Mannitol 2-dehydrogenase
Amino acid sequence: MTLSNTGLQNLPASVIVPQYDRDVLTPGIVHIGLGNFHRAHQAWYLHRLMQQGLAHDWAIVGAGVRPGDAQQRDRLAAQDYLTTLIELKPSDTTAEVIGSMIGFALVAPDNAALTAQMADPVIRIVSLTVTEGGYFIDPATKGFDAQHADIQHDAAHPDTPCTAFGAIIAALKQRRSAGTGPFTCMSCDNLQGNGAILRQTVVSLARLSDPDLADWIDTNCTFPNSMVDCIVPATGPSEMELVHSLGIDDASPVTHENYRQWVIEDSFCAGRPDWDKVGATFTDDVHDFEAMKIRVLNGGHQIVANAGELLSIETIAECIAHPKIAAFFQKTAQEEILPHLMAVPGMEPTAYVDLIKERFANPRIVDTTRRVAFDGSSRHPGFVIPSIKDGLAGNTPIAGLALVEAVWARMCAGTREDGSEIAANDPFWDDLKATALKAKSSAQIWLSQEQYYGDLAQNALFAERFDHWLQLIWRDGVEAAMAEYLQTP
């Protein structure tokens, strides 16, 4: 059955469908970067509110700024912006069609349609999932990268911006002129302090062309920090086969694990849906939740995926089924990451490590090592290196984390241990590959990449451990290195 408003009543009885009238929904949110994660997470929370008869004036309008986003728009428009979510528990499968999205702005280089949509007074929240590397952060200073070519374009042409942030600024300029007020800007990406980072990007970019507008945005808009969590694989042939086996013709289905978490700073200048009524947590202190999730789950993903890539292991579940990789994750997380984390309501750090390991092991979630290892140049500085710095400052072990970085360096050399090629898997792949190959004879060359490591190359303890591991991996392989680490007290 083709997915559409008129076809909902004809779907199999086992499929949960919207119980609300989608024709009466009105928009309240624009979401930029509408991929699988958003639909399995934020859009699902809103859908569940709508199922309770609430938040019908908060429907989502999707948006994107990349050429490929136009294809996503076409796919979703053809099925009335409905999405099939397939929850993959280890023991069974549940399917649910969500209807909280009602439109998608036209995708064009000047972002005119996106700007107009955000300028509409009915929009009160603009949210984003644009990846950790999408916020124009200078890797060396962690400040705003004003020299990036896209930023320079938007500063010179603020009315025809090429970035999502430029479009946000253009829309806010129109709203200020019209007297319709600000909206909340909400990042849903895996960045600690993601709201503060989004504020930095938007306000700094605005200041390049209109300092008065920058001040107005900084004063009137809110940028809540948030932590988001749900493992959502990419959609491929097996996912398409699965949705078809359920009797649904969906051109863009989403599979996900049977776990979600959303922790949000309650700072919304123009109102918000009551997401807490369907399981989200509002708090004035997101930091501890963020730190635990980013360092254990996201950092843990790098621990297992980079090793798995070198060993030609295709999925994260298969990585955790590998005894040495599973033990490597457990020991590094327990001994080197957890000492710097605080308990959060309902969860002790040790129990959280066990939970993450269990989630990684779900064999129904076909989450590829390649997807998880993608963009290490953003993910290692964001998810792993902060734990190294904390360990050095607190005099706690860092040998396992140094091994994590050596495995990444070896992976970036571009070949697996069986000799097969690792296709480009990072925006800076060519530079990383060239540096990794040079580091084979001199490990310090890898650590000299200050944009990722800062001054860690000058730390004798870390540099010695990294050098030891990298030489061992090149000589005897990653399994030998993991085995040696696991034998250390």
Q: What stands out?
A: The domain at 287-487 is CATH 1.10.1040.10 (N-(1-d-carboxylethyl)-l-norvaline Dehydrogenase; domain 2).
